[in-house]
Amino acid sequence: MAKIKTPRWGWALTGSGHFFKECLAMIHALDEVDLFVTRAAAEVVRMYKQDLTLPKSARIFRDTAASAPPVGNFYYGVYHTLVLGPATSNTVAKCVYGISDNLATNVFAQAGKCRVPAIVFACDTAPELETEAPKGMVKVYPRRIDLENTARLKSFEGTNVVETLAELEQALTERKRELAGHG
């Protein structure tokens, strides 16, 4: 397969509702984006009553096959960047320990193997957080292991772990600047 002319953004959604609506708005603002939707993310879309309509250039890949066939696109230069977010503590732990058993963890692994930079918006980043649940705001208290795994993921080559919505916006802006040849 020949390299494509315009590499795309890849964005993987997991089963987290943490800033889920805001992440969908950021996805809408990207040109040439493919969305990787895990089964858990599809449940969250329904729980939060969100619409996955995207720009015409966007493609949606759903987690329907054990081998995650869309990950092969990473081998052929289809993606310049992977965004994984919001990323559950489960997803972060799997990424840290090299477990690739769903679409999100599979694309993260393949991005790393193909040296495609990844931005991970981790959810469990502080001992106490407020997050939006389907019925309103709730407090959550990430476990020590969740915080440790987020810290471990920060040491991964080619991986930028962000902890806040503002950091995610900044990371996207910086990556756009790099892609435009200004970074």
Description:
α3 crosses α5. This protein has one domain (8-175): Flavin prenyltransferase-like (Rossmann fold). It is globular. It has helices spanning 20-28, 39-47, 89-96, 103-113, 144-153, 165-179, and strands spanning 8-13, 33-37, 59-62, 79-87, 118-122, 129-133, 136-140, 159-162. It is 34% helix and 23% strand. It is α/β, with parallel strands linked by helices. The strands form two sheets. A six-stranded parallel β-sheet has the order 3-2-1-4-5-8, sandwiched between helices. Strands 6-7 form a two-stranded antiparallel sheet. The model has no long low-confidence stretch (mean pLDDT 87). The protein contains six helices and eight strands.
How far is the first residue's CA from the last residue's CA?
A: 29 Å
Query: Could you please say which CATH topology applies here?
Result: Rossmann fold
Mean pLDDT: 87
Percentage of residues assigned to helices: 25-40%
Radius of gyration, whole Å:
15 Å
Write the topology of this structure.
Elements: E1 8-13, H1 20-28, E2 33-37, H2 39-47, E3 59-62, E4 79-87, H3 89-96, H4 103-113, E5 118-122, E6 129-133, E7 136-140, H5 144-153, E8 159-162, H6 165-179
Parallel strand pairs: 1-2, 1-4, 2-3, 4-5, 5-8
Antiparallel strand pairs: 6-7
Helix pairs in contact: 3-5
